[in-house]
Structure prediction request, 611 residues.
Amino acid sequence: MSNFSPLHTLRGLFSVIWLMIVLLPCTVLAAEPDDEDTLELFSAWQESASTASRAPKPLSQTAENVTVITFADIAAMNAHTLADILDTIPGIQVLHNGGPGITAYTFIQSSSFQHVQVFVDGLSITNLGDNYSETTLIPARIIERVEIVKGAASAAWGSALAGVINVITKAPVQDRTLSGTASASIGERTTADSSLELSGSSGRLGYYLSGGFLGSNGILPNTQNASTNAHARLTWDLPGSGRLYATFNRSQIRQGDLFIPAYDLKENQDKSLLFANIGLRQPLSERLELEFSARHSFLKGDTSWFNISDGLTWQPDLPTGSFSNQVSGASIKLVRRGDNDLLVTGGDYSHLENNSNTMDGSTYSPFSRAADRWGAYLNDTVTLGSFSVTPGVRFDHTQTAGDQYSYSLGGTWQASETTMLRAYAARGYGVPQFLDVDKPSEKIWTTQIGMESTSVPYLWLKGTVFRNETWGKDVERHEALGAEAELRTTPLWNTSLGAGYTFVDTTRSSDGAQVNYAPRHTVKLSLRYDDKTYRALLTGSHINWNSMPGDNPRYGGLLWDLHLGAILFKRENSSLELFFSGRNLFSNGQYQYDMVPNPGRWFEGGMRVSF
Prediction:
């Protein structure tokens, strides 16, 4: 186990912040930021929108702790999947089983990954069987924007005890009949990622189409994978500003997921995810808008265990399983925008089916379950001068875990043109996985107080303190006390800095003992350069996983990734770009237990053509 001390993390972070503050005035003398850069930094909370309450509103009126990742942020990362994007976000911990495309588990502020809900264009992709979200099956290239709500979000989203990751995919390009992007990369262990995107509009029709392949011989042993993805988003404009829309996505992967030499075992998985929705957004008046959507998703998978020493032979004394999930449903939402308030009311209905088979020895243990769930919610944002108040309430009939009541109350105060204060309290819940037939839901009380400010010249600062208390029948009551701090600088000489630190202390309420496997320290650092022709992004990540000593964890130092890009050719609508990434440059270890180490240093490079 590494002897890395959390104190080293704090010292390192404070050193970076101190250095940035000391150097900024000197740098300003040499290069003043242009107005566009200043506005972009200022609008981080002033003008950007969030959908935390199920309808877009300014972040300056959003009481929840929300992080927004834009398309420009994503493009700079050379990311392969949604999991790679989440890796860079303060307050988020991602545990990888291997390289790109391999299973990854997402935690929000040290809560269980089973309490994190992931939505893509309003449709949940969370697995019913174990409440796990397949973030590695969502390609980064199709994503326009990611919004993360940290803390209980049940008053708007239902079962979202730890928070929500809301993915908005790319919309059709307007005013062009045809545009597109072709990309291909190659890396170590034959890691390859290739894709083609086409987008445009003609008359009332808009389209975005994407297809791609991601594969590798395995950065770590037995983490070979081959995945394909096809995605389509269509829109049809109606008279009177209404719009029909539809989304279709299909992903498949074959992968080696675990490699455990100590037990002479390896695990292979085949998974397939399909989801589709169709909807109508129609203004009823100048202030009133109605939205209706229907959706369907299908997720299936097969898991096989083998002996490493004889990988071609099935092991009948080890469990082998398969599962399938189907969810069909519909949602309706009514949004009223007044002069001083935003009222959102609606309902969700889902029919869920789960089937699984587990083999123990020569005996199969089938499991089948279905449920009908529905919920109704009401959220409001009332603005009174520089204050906004955001009450919310929701009722859910889960059928499998009883009826649930969720509510929240938050507020923001724009103390000055450069500083906003916010507070938020919410009661939420998380339904257990379908396989736990008799297990009741878990509950949470979330309280947060935060601040965002650009009052310090050339700096955007954000801070949040929070308390999360979780409990349930036959579930230990836990209390998590934490704080999160972020900063970004205005670009100077086309260069900007970013830093984030999250501390969470999770204890058992019964005796005050610390809860293991709830990460205590998370550090995220970034250094970015972009002059519109050349770009570079250096990111650092440290997670103290707080594992048991017997697991032989490692979380010393930081994992450093470097992403470079150069536009060799550019015209009005066309460009040619070369890009390169070096990951885990110093080959540091960062894992919960030694049976699943993180990948060491590896490199890849590629080309992207836009037209």
Notes: The chain has one domain: 6-172+242-610.
